[in-house]
Design goal:
- The chain is mostly helical.
- It has a single domain, classed as Up-down Bundle (Four Helix Bundle (Hemerythrin (Met), subunit A)), CATH 1.20.120.1760.
- The chain is built from 7 helices and 4 strands, in the order βαααααβαββα.
- The strands form 2 sheets. Strands 1-2 form a two-stranded parallel ribbon. The protein has a two-stranded antiparallel ribbon with strand order 3-4.
- α2 packs antiparallel against α3, α2 runs parallel beside α4 and α3 runs antiparallel to α6.
- The protein starts with 7 loop residues before the first strand and ends in a 26-residue tail after the last helix.
- The mean pLDDT is 92.
């Protein structure tokens, strides 16, 4: 059975090049007993644990530090599993693509849900961010299927940069969950989630328009064969001359 063609991965974030070199070195040094599935499970469990830490952080401040540790462990497992498979030539592109996206969808729900449960975010910013995030991920999956391009980052910003931003915001929570803008006090993560939702929605619209134009250029509508106008000298049509 012929394997399906591989999609083209597009990853041009600020840290992508340095991260790739680091991951390859880490994968090369990984013990043989550890495989990519182990790393995938580790990354998923860490993301779920981060959500629990956010939910309990309002009662026990050290949980917020643990949340940052969980984000680092998630990066380790989620970023290294695919690299390890490629280094060892044990790639399962369809399985990896599907499982990673399912776990990412669950993981982000736990993290944002944990922020809301812990009182660090309000319902509307949290729901708006999740809606925008899922819309963009649907667009990415559709583009991967229709165009064969799997885009991992936009505007020099990818999953690793998102984790770092989330970690920085989490550490700021240890000082105060509030921020003041123009004399008005807002929850720090309400500001972050709202800004993130707006940015992701803009990215979704731009990507959807660009990919629609690409697909239309690849599959344009056929030009219809219009009937010849009366009195024209079309090929194969004889027009009688007027009587003298």
């Amino acid at each position: 059975m012929t394997s399906p063609p591989r999609e083209t991965r597009i990853h041009g974030s600020l840290l992508a090049a340095a991260e790739k070199r680091l991951l390859i070195r880490m994968a090369s040094a990984m013990p043989a007993a550890v495989n990519s599935d182990h790393l995938t499970i580790l990354g998923a469990v860490a993301m779920l644990a981060a959500g629990v830490c956010f939910a309990t952080g309002t009662f026990w401040a050290p949980a917020l530090v643990l949340a940052v540790v969980c984000l680092a462990v998630n990066w380790f497992g989620d970023s290294l599993d695919g690299t390890l498979a490629r280094v060892r030539r044990h790639e399962r592109p369809r399985y990896g693509f599907y499982v990673d996206h399912v776990l990412d969808a669950i993981g982000i729900l736990f993290v944002v849900g944990g922020l809301f449960a812990g009182g660090f975010a309000s319902i509307l910013p949290a729901a708006g961010f999740l809606t925008a995030y899922y819309l963009l991920n649907i667009e990415i999956a559709l583009a991967t299927h229709a165009l064969g391009t799997f885009r991992i980052s936009y505007w020099k910003f990818g999953p690793t940069e998102l984790r770092l931003l989330l970690a920085a915001g989490t550490l700021q929570l240890l000082n105060s969950p509030w921020s003041t803008i123009a004399g008005h006090r807002f929850l720090l993560f309400d500001i972050g989630l709202t800004a993130g939702a707006i940015g992701i929605l803009i990215t979704f619209v731009v990507a959807a328009v660009q990919n629609t134009r690409k697909l239309y250029a690849l599959e344009p509508l056929p030009v219809p064969n219009l009937p010849a106008k009366a009195g024209s000298h079309a090929v194969g049509v004889t027009v009688p001359e007027a009587a003298s």
